[in-house]
Each structure stands twice: as C-alpha cells, then as structure tokens.
Amino acid sequence: MSQTSISPATGRLGILTPGMGAVATTLYAGVLAARAGQATPIGSLTQMGHIRLGKRTENRNPLIREFVPLADLDDIVFGGWDPYSDDAYAAAMRAGVLRPEHIEGVGEEMRAIAPMSAIFSPDWVTRLEGTDNVASPGLTKWEQVEKLVEDIETFRKENDCDRLSMVWCGSTEAYHEPVDIHQSLDLFEAALKADDERIAPSQIYAYASLITGTPFANGAPNVTIDFPAMVELASREGVPISGKDFKTGQTLIKTIVAPGLKARMLGIDGWFSTNILGNRDGEVLDAPENFRSKEVSKLGVLEQILQPEAYPELYGDMYHKVRINYYPPRGDDKEGWDNIDIFGWLGYKMQIKIDFLCKDSILAAPLVLDLALFMDLAGRAGRSGIQEWLSFYYKAPQAAPGLYAENDIFIQLKKLKNNLRDMMGEDLITHLGTEYYEEG
C-alpha cells in the first residue's frame, strides 16, 4: 500500500472550543498538567493507545502518537468562547470537576485563557441565567459570522498558530429538524444574510470555522453540521467535519454491552436508561426542548447495533426508554442506571442491571483532545468532508447520505485504526488469521 501524503505537524496547533465550561476546562487543565509531567492523559487514544501493524508474529505495536504524525502536546494552545466571562481557572473552579490542587498546579496558564464573547441565544439554550459575555445582541446572523471569523484570525495571529481545530464543547441546543434553508449552501448563506431565526448559534460557529479552513467536530447532539449545506461547505473549502455528541457515560456502556448480547444471539425485551446529573449540561437538559436533542442521539444507538429488522424474534419488540434528570447535588458526577430485560434459550427471562457512577467531563475531556488531533491530522492528509472513521467518539455518528452510521464500538475502533494504517501505507488488519494454519 502507498502512504498518504501528510503535511508535517510542525508549529503550533490552536484548539478552539465554543463553550468553556466543565468539559473544556477539564481538557485544558489535563493537557497542561500532562505536558508539565504532573499527570497522565488516561482515556486518550492518541496519547496512550497502541496500534498493531502487520502480522501478529512481527510484534509491531507502536504507540499511535509515534505511528502517525500528530501534533505534540507541547505545541497546543487553547482558546474559546463562553457566555460567562470567567477565565479558565475560575470556570474550572466553578465547575467543580477537578480538585483545587489539580487546578492550582496549572493555575497561571489557566488564568491566561480568557473567553471570547460568545454567540449565544436564550431561544436555543433556555436555562442559562446571568450570562455576562455575550456578543452584542444587535448583531445579525451574518455579522455574527464576521465577528467569529475575526476572533479566529486574531487568535491565530496572536498565538502564532500554524493550524487550528475547533471542537464544540457548548451546551445542548433546543431540537429543531433541518428545514429548507439547510438543504443547500446557497440557501443557507442567503438565510444567514437575511438574519433567519432558524439558524442556530452552533451552526454559525461551524460556518465560521469552515470558511477559515478550520476543521470542526461537534461534541453535542445539536443539528450543527449534519445537513446538506454544511457538508457542501466542508467539501467546497476542503475541510474535515465530524460529529455528533460525545460518547461518554451511559451510551458508552450501551455500545459495549449491546454488541456482546447480539454476538451471543440473546434477545432483549426492554432497555430502560435513566441518568442524574447536576452540572451545567444537566441544567440545560432539564428543558424538554433541549432534552429532545439528546434523546434523539441516544435512542438511535441500540436500533442500529441490534438490527431489529434482521432479528425480529430477538429485538423486534424491544422497549427502549431514556431519561435524564437534573439533580444539582451531584454536580459533574453523573449516575447512569440501566435495567436490561433479556431472554435466552427457550425464551427464559434474565436481567442485567448496570449502575455507572461516572464523571462526565473526565470521560469527555480526552475525547476532545483526540478529536482535535485527529481532525488536524485529517486536514494535513488532505481529507475533507465527513470523517466517518471518527465515529468511535460519538453517540450519533455522521455518515454519508444514504449510509447508516455504525455504532458498535468495536467495529468503530477497527475502522479508526484501519484508517490510520491506510494513511501510513500499512496493510489493513482483517483478523482473518488463516495464514498461520496453512500448510506449506
């Protein structure tokens, strides 16, 4: 196989996050601590994962970051936007994810990361009060684009960045299906200039990102880049996009457990999932219109993995319920509880109960890092448009029109690693293994 021509990862990479709340500040602090030798970047595939190359007998299993040319942690600089004016240090303290001693260890650098004024609308995120860092409310949608473009280029220049990646770390927006203005780039750009209220703030960030040549990854269930106009723009500008909705707690467990049950041909009568969460994300999702965005991304996972149309006896009548409850005392310590009613040989009933006491931002932060680095790699490799090989990181992966998105986490990981092998001119791994048992 021939190796893809990939531009070197020289110079500085700016990672921009719309949203500087719990997830983003946990990312910043973790990367700063890791490069200072104060912590280990656990949970990051780019930093800790290995990749097998060639036959098992060759014993080639390098670190991914030593196999593909990724930006080094020492070359990363952070920036972002937020509707609250707290710098990253104050925001991290307010979020309460990390213990103060972990934030203090990188406190000087965290204080230097101040948010740019945000494009924000209470029509799309209803539960955030006291916002004090919102761009002038009199700006039209097109003027908001111009403002963000200026922010991006100013950040690039002031921080001497050679390249940028943008990863959405903001709140979940109210759910709205794409409409006519989202069906082509001409219609979308005309709607921007007409100040159309059906354009969400996240869509404005994505548009500004792409027209400045900045890869964009969507970490929320928002309808942000998964519509024809934005795919067309990514193709026109030659910029990678990927999304959507970070796969962290409960859905992570679903994409691990469901493939195992299906592999053993065990049936499922019902899967009930409920969460309690007390951080800013939980407060926003307490609004029904915002929860609907999350519900859509969560509900589709099991149906794709289990293929009820192919296995009607096992999954055709499965009842799937998802609930998220805002519970302030928990803060960022989310609890995901699953009850799974399954059946086996001769239809005998069994149950599985999972109680996942997790830290939402601790699980999400390494995903943001990986996505920023892999999206930068994709850009340097000349890849543009939808990066389906990064489905590993998302609850509702984006795929080409007419193509279903794979949700089985084990298949997703094989796809990701085979894409890396392909970029570097290595043989793809099929796991067939018959060559070890052939005579001669």
What is the CATH topology of the largest domain? Rossmann fold
Name of the CATH first level of the largest domain: Alpha Beta
Number of strands: 11
The value of Rg in angstroms is 22 Å
List the domain count as a whole number: 2
Counted by DSSP, the helix tally is: 16
Strand portion, in percent? 15-25%
- Report the CATH superfamily of the largest domain: NAD(P)-binding Rossmann-like Domain
Spatial ordering of strands, largest sheet? 3-2-1-4-5-6-11
Average pLDDT metric: 94
Q: Provide the structure class.
A: alpha/beta
Shape: globular
Going by CATH, the architecture of the largest domain would be: 3-Layer(aba) Sandwich
End-to-end Cα distance: 26 Å
> What fraction, in percent, of the residue positions are helical?
25-40%
